[in-house]
Amino acid sequence: MSPEHLSALIAEIEAETPLDFSAVAIDAQYARRLMASHFCEIDARLAACGLLLEDRLEMMAAIAAHALVENMLLQLVQLRTVAALHERSRARGGEPRGAAAEGGSAAGADGAVDAAFREWMRRHGIG
Q: Is residue 32 a contact partner of residue 8, using CB atoms and an 8 Å limit?
C-alpha cells in the first residue's frame, strides 16, 4: 500500500460522490495525498508493533468507521444549523436565503434540508 495508490483509490471513490473543496483553502488532490500518507504511516506503525496483516486491516477498518461516524456527526450539525437558520428567518417573517429557488417558501426550504439529509443518509448506506 502506497500513498500514491491509496490517493488514486480515494479519487475513484470521489468520482462517484465528489467532495466540495470550494469553501476551504486546500486542494482536493493534496487532501487525498495527506490522508493517504497518514493511513500508510499508521499501517507502518502497526506493522512495526508486530500486528499481522489481518489485525492491521481490522484496525484500519475501525479507524475508517470512526471517521465515518465523525463525518455523520459533522453533517448532522451542519444540517441542523441550516434548519435553525431557516427557522429563525421564518420566525422573523422572512424567507430563508434561497427559499425562492427551492419552492418559494420556508416550508420548501425545510423540505430541501430534509431531502438533503435523506440523500446524505442514502449515499452512506444508512437510510
A: no
For residue 59, what is its C-alpha cell?
484496525
CA atoms within 13 A on the CB side of 102: 18
Whole-number Å distance between alpha carbons of 126 and 120: 9
Helix axes 3-16, 28-48, angle to 10 degrees: 130
Q: Show the cell assigned to 106.
A: 420556508
Tell me which DSSP letter residue 100 carries.
G
Residue 91: its pLDDT value, please?
82
Model confidence pLDDT, tens digit, residues 99-113 = 444 444 445 556 666
* Cell matching residue 24: 476551504
Contact between 113 and 82 under an 8 Å Cβ cutoff? The reply is yes
* Residue of 83, 88, 120, 121 lying closest to 102 (CA atoms): 83
